[in-house]
């Protein structure tokens, strides 16, 4: 796992965008897109590079991580609408290349299986952007999720529903969702997690420096071949090996190693 310590949310976005850009410029990239506030600065920076530095997404395919059950794709708070509003509609990624699990189907389990298979049929995800929940979830894999789980129906934790209530005008967050599993996420060639803010500090500590445990689902990234964790000072505030992460990053920067070239673990 590579830990990159940044000065601000904007800095986090730039470092994350560097890794995504590396894959996009290589051609025919498959991106894994996360919703939530954490990747906002990454998407802003990618949109800026699209507008000002001709970073093109026309041959990119994208899969989102998760979706609320019961919400149609065009619902204001569906993750399909959210990722379009935050990113996809601002670049030249063709809409038919955006894949999201469909939350308003009658057979959610079949939809989960279909979605997992579609990721495999696309050749897998090259770089999966991730945020982390305050309870350590990635996607909607709540604590005690199987570390080998596939895309499936999950019940949302009460804390997650409370955290996300701010996005719903009536405060009514669905109780069920579809989410890529931890086993699915682990298959992405690079896992790129961004976290900001003091309310993520404990989850970040458990993910990076705690034991691998379903109690903190994000800790499964310790088993990933190329996991990169990019943090602002508040999110990194409880890490005990911060000096080492800084030294390692200086060396990686000096050697010009990137996630795609696989120059670190
Ligand atoms: N399902 C999403 C996750 O993909 C996201 O990473 C996390 C953190 O959200 P935020 O980035 O808004 O703090 O919780 C949400 O519920």
TrEMBL record:
Activity modulation comment: Allosterically activated by N-acetylglucosamine 6-phosphate (GlcNAc6P).
Active site: 66, 135, 137, 142
CDD domains: GlcN6P_deaminase
Enzyme Commission code: 3.5.99.6
Pathway(s): Amino-sugar metabolism; N-acetylneuraminate degradation; D-fructose 6-phosphate from N-acetylneuraminate: step 5/5
GO terms, biological process: carbohydrate metabolic process; glucosamine catabolic process; N-acetylglucosamine catabolic process; N-acetylneuraminate catabolic process
Pfam families (UniProt xref): Glucosamine_iso
Catalysed reactions listed for this entry: alpha-D-glucosamine 6-phosphate + H2O = beta-D-fructose 6-phosphate + NH4(+)
Key words of the record: Allosteric enzyme, Carbohydrate metabolism, Hydrolase
Glucosamine/galactosamine-6-phosphate isomerase domain: residues covered: 9-226
One GO location term (cellular component): cytoplasm
Protein function: Catalyzes the reversible isomerization-deamination of glucosamine 6-phosphate (GlcN6P) to form fructose 6-phosphate (Fru6P) and ammonium ion.
Record's protein name: Glucosamine-6-phosphate deaminase
């Amino acid at each position: 796992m590579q830990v990159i310590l940044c000065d601000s949310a904007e800095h986090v976005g730039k470092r994350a965008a560097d890794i995504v850009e590396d894959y996009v410029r290589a051609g025919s990239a498959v991106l894994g897109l996360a919703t939530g506030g954490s990747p906002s600065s990454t998407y802003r920076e990618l949109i800026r590079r699209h507008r000002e530095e001709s970073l093109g997404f026309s041959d990119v395919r994208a899969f989102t991580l998760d979706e609320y059950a019961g919400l149609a794709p065009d619902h204001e708070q569906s993750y399909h609408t959210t990722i379009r509003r935050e990113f996809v509609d601002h670049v030249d990624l063709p809409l038919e290349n955006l894949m999201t699990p469909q939350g308003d189907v009658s057979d959610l389990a079949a939809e989960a299986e279909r979605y997992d298979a579609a990721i495999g049929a696309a050749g897998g995800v090259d770089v999966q952007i991730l945020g982390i929940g305050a309870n350590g979830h990635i996607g909607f894999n709540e604590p005690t999720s199987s570390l080998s789980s596939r895309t499936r129906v999950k019940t949302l934790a009460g804390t997650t529903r409370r955290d996300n209530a701010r996005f719903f005008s009536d405060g009514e967050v669905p109780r069920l969702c579809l989410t890529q599993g931890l086993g699915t996420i682990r298959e992405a060639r690079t896992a790129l997690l961004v976290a900001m803010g003091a309310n993520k500090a404990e989850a970040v500590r458990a993910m990076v420096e705690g034991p691998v445990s379903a109690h903190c689902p994000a800790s499964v990234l310790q088993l990933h071949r190329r996991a990169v964790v990019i943090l602002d000072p508040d999110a990194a505030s409880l890490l005990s090996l911060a000096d080492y992460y800084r030294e390692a990053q200086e060396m990686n920067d000096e050697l010009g190693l990137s996630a795609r070239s696989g120059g670190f673990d």
